[in-house]
Amino acid sequence: MEQLYSFSAQDSSGQTINMTDYEGKVLLIVNTATRCGLTPQYQELQALYSRYTDQGFEILDFPCNQFRTQAPESSKEIVQICQTKFGTEFKIFDKIEVNGPDTHPIYHYLKSQQPQDKGGLKFKDVLLKLAALGAKRENGDIKWNFTKFLVNRQGDVVARFAPSMPPSKIAPHIEALL
């Protein structure tokens, strides 16, 4: 049976990272972009990371340029922007695709486990749907940047949060798993 820990991904410096490195940790896996209206969420993501990392919490950041090309920079440039502008300290991976024929295997898996978003801000969700008009979507596809998957210590994908869901609102769900 396939599980999250059977996958690997390249980090922003090109090193292969096995998901087994994260066994026993609570994870928040996020597809991000540096030029999106939701990019300020990086501040809240870093706040969550700072608050919970000592308790076994990790954020895995997967930049993606599929939504109106809002992450055009190289992976190394993305890291520099995130560290300089938002003070991020969590792991940033190489850019991937989260939808379509070149979807990264981790995202195939995440979407198969949690095909629907929950939470979010209704008005922002409507705006995101409008922004994504014309994009071919399949059931379970990621709708936009900053979709968040929460994974428990056993590697189970327990929730998928809408892009407009502020990371700070996910804190109670994280605490329940820690």
What does this structure look like?
The strands form 2 sheets. The protein has a 5-stranded mixed β-sheet. A two-stranded antiparallel ribbon has the order 1-2. It is α/β, with parallel strands linked by helices and 178 residues long. The model has no long low-confidence stretch (mean pLDDT 91). Strand 1 and strand 2 form a beta hairpin. 28% of the residues lie in helices and 17% in strands. The chain is built from 5 helices and 7 strands. The longest helix has 12 residues, at 41-52.
Give the secondary structure arrangement, pairings included.
Elements lengths: L7 E3 L5 E3 L7 E7 L8 H12 L4 E7 L11 H12 L4 E2 L12 H9 L8 H10 L16 E4 L5 E5 L9 H7 L1
Parallel strand pairs: 3-4, 4-5
Antiparallel strand pairs: 1-2, 3-6, 6-7
Gross geometry: globular
Number of beta-strand segments:
7
**pLDDT averaged residue by residue:** 91
- Count of helical segments? 5
Strand order of the largest sheet: 5-4-3-6-7
Which structural class is indicated by helix and strand composition?
alpha/beta
Strand content: 15-25%
Low-confidence stretches: none
Keyword list:
alpha/beta; five-stranded mixed sheet; 178 residues; 5 helices; globular
Quick structural overview:
With 178 residues, this protein is an alpha/beta fold. It is 28% helix and 17% strand.
